[in-house]
Amino acid sequence: MSTLRITCLVIAVTAFASLVSPPASQAQRGRGKGPEVVSPEVSADGQITFRILAPKAESVQLTGGDIPEVGQGKEMTKDDDGVWEVTLGPVGPGAYRYRFNVDDVPTVDPQNPSTSESNSTVWSLVCVPGSDFMDTKNVPHGALSIVTYYSSSLDRPRRMHIYTPPGYESGEGKYPVFYLLHGASDSDASWTTVGRAQFILDNLIAAKKAKPMIVVMPNGHTSRFRWGNRLSSDDFIEDFVNDIKPYVEKNYRVYTNSKNRAIAGLSMGGAQTLNIAIPHLGDYSYIGVFSSGIFGITGRGPGGDSGPSWEERHKEILDNDELKKDLELFWFAIGEDDFLLETSQATVEMLKKHGFEIVSKETSRGHVWLNWRDYLHEFAQKLFK
């Protein structure tokens, strides 16, 4: 074989090898498509490193309301490959929503498939393990269903999330039902993503600290939410009373007496809880209000407007001792730094004035999921005793 043919063969083989096996430096950079990016990365001690590839960006911030150290935004730094990075923590166990603000454009983490849906947007989600009550543990797990139903009240299809406890599908018995409402700007998916509700219930039931129950998590918004707009729950109340509750009682094996029915909610959902449970006081034996109360209670009307106050409009029911006889628990909880603290306190005092026995507690922190998961964990253990 001539020297020329040997040289050409070597060149061809080398070229083919370079196609299937790029140089080490290139392989490390994602086979010529840029550097590999891992995000989020949670260390054993609870530190979280967030990264995003944005070589042409001028600035990138990490945003996320519940994550310590973040506040209104945490500046990230860019390396020579165009990867922006920031490390936080150690961060306590829990689930945290976050996004990147890339040159003022809110962006989910493209490397993270875990997300949490709110009313009008979506967040990336990171979970820091280490919490005995909400970690995903080796215990029997219930089923989580995404249920579409038709709302006759709103004349359109709607969605809710429903948790059924371990053994429900293979059994025949009935279960108590717990209606769990979310807060303003969130969705029916929030309690099971950032709220970890299904894992909290799984762990409690496995430890025999809570009764097996069905948990219904509806969508409390009937339109697109905007901060600053006055909250109106009337449409949702109609949807709940006329469509959600009847749907659950028709399609799920639930008891339909007050002793086996509970309702609770956080923030907006707490106000909705009161607007559902008080007018239908004989229907619920367990009522929970997390970080909330009667909106506008320090003023007039449902939102501080003129007109009859919420107390005046419901006075006949509030003073009806017969309707209170099956009420086993009326439970309030709120953080000492919560902006609705005075609203909650005033609501508790108003209800006590009308003869209600209220259990209330004030905890640390403010208006955050770090509290609401704790409240759910504690409240669920008190149900259906």
Write the SSE topology.
Elements: H1 3-20, H2 24-28, E1 41-42, E2 48-53, E3 60-63, E4 74-75, E5 77-78, E6 83-88, E7 94-102, E8 105-107, E9 115-117, E10 122-128, E11 143-151, E12 156-164, E13 177-181, H3 197-206, E14 214-218, H4 234-251, E15 261-266, H5 268-277, E16 286-290, H6 310-313, H7 315-318, H8 321-324, E17 329-335, H9 341-353, E18 359-363, H10 369-380
Parallel strand pairs: 13-14, 13-15, 15-16, 16-17, 17-18
Antiparallel strand pairs: 1-2, 2-6, 3-4, 3-7, 5-6, 7-8, 7-10, 9-10, 11-12, 12-14
Architecture overview:
With 385 residues, the chain is an alpha/beta fold. It contains 10 helices and 18 strands. The N terminus is likely disordered. Helix 3 packs parallel to helix 10. It is globular and about 70 Å long. The protein has an 8-stranded mixed sheet with strand order 11-12-14-13-15-16-17-18, sandwiched between helices. The longest helix has 18 residues. A hairpin with a 4-residue loop joins strand 5 and strand 6. The protein folds into 2 domains: 88 residues, Immunoglobulins (Immunoglobulin-like); 238 residues, Alpha/Beta hydrolase fold, catalytic domain (Rossmann fold, 3-Layer(aba) Sandwich). 25% of the residues lie in helices and 25% in strands.
